[in-house]
Amino acid sequence: MMRIIQYFLPILLFLFSLNCNNKKSEEKNEDLVFHLLLDAYMNGSNVPCVSTQTVPLEPIGTWTVGGNPFFYSETLPISLHRSLPMVQLFFEQNNTFGGALFPVFYENRSISSSGFLNRDVFSGLGQGSSTSMFPYGKDTAYATDPAVSILNTDSISSPLGVEFNLEIPVSLSATFISSCKTLDSDEMEFQTNHADSADSGLYHFWQTEKNLDVNLIFVNNGPDLAYPDQTLTALSVALNRWKENYSQGPVRININFSSTTLDSVEYSSIYDLSTSFIFPGTLGGLFTTTSYVGKPNALNVFIVKEELQYGGVLGVSGGIPGPATLLGTRQSGVAVFIETHRLTSNTGQPLTHDELLLLGETMSHEAGHFLGLWHVVEAFGDTGEVGSRDPLRDTPVCGIWNDLNQDGFLSVLECSGFGPYDSGGRNMMFWSGMVGFAQGQITAEQGWILRLNPLVY
Ligand SMILES: [Zn+2]
């Protein structure tokens, strides 16, 4: 979920291989009646329409994942239809360390063998908290294992259910965050196809323009400023690049910016980019302790001077997706790092024009993660596995055979071909970026996901 500058070699996430066939589903209580309490605010179309419900969870049994025992909760129903077209799940343990956890979806609550895993599970388990969402693509069969097809365009919901799985059965809650903005007719009728070129999906045009509010938070430490000039004007080259990217036909989201400052000794430099820990200097700590500067109806972007864990990370999102409207969780926000964007400018100076353009691409990219987009292809290339690429059909990807210098990673230049399997380097959600290389391409299916996010109105 982080964006990395080109010369930086990432530490790859350990991929968990889950085997859900071991599960004793018949032990679960399938009859639980779960009432989704709507606390939606529907004051016209100039604010997001979101309903949230937080429920405590009790483990009711155990099963084995990769040889390790996991507890599981009862199955909770999910509503997904044209007037509740997207749901996010935020699953949290209220303790300092937490254990591994993940959600598992069920296609049909009356069929105990219909369990399937969502895209998020294939990139590793959450620690202390976890997010998931549905749908991850127009064609859900492309995002799940085993493949299932779930529609969000019907007038009533199919009997979707979810249960929650975790290592340490204490202090658990799950929050359901639903968008209650009814699908536009063209969003409802939208069809997608497999990419057949690098240009696939780039020429769509949605009928209506939507809005996203963004709250920029400059994280300063007294006179040590994250950026020397903290006006929107000073960042206009970056902010305009982001607006241009999202204003394209396949997206059509207008961005409204506001800004504020945070004076913090503890978070002007980030030493640990994980959200597992909430100590000073960690990303999880930044997000959990600074909710007073956040806006619940906006995407909160922390502008931080530097990260010192790797030194090459441009930005990082609290999750894929981040929990919309929830402030003060381990995953509540996006951070971008000014120093990583420098090529010729010096610390303390404004960024150059090209460096600001890269900052705009980073903001677009991290916002894409927070709103639910994965990398079109992960750093090691498309292997055909669910976890090696995004769950969308119309995005071009890049196979590992394009790794011409054989360093094990696919660079933007190695993925700048013209076909569906040798490109993606120009896409906003490519895993790495570099100064002077535009990456503003966004496909219609990516735009469809962005437009359905609960924060978009
Ligand atoms: Zn990324």
UniProtKB/TrEMBL annotation:
SUPFAM superfamilies: Metalloproteases ('zincins'), catalytic domain. It comes from Leptospira bourretii. This is Uncharacterized protein. Gene3D superfamilies: Collagenase (Catalytic Domain). One of its GO terms (molecular function) is metallopeptidase activity. InterPro entries: MetalloPept_cat_dom_sf.
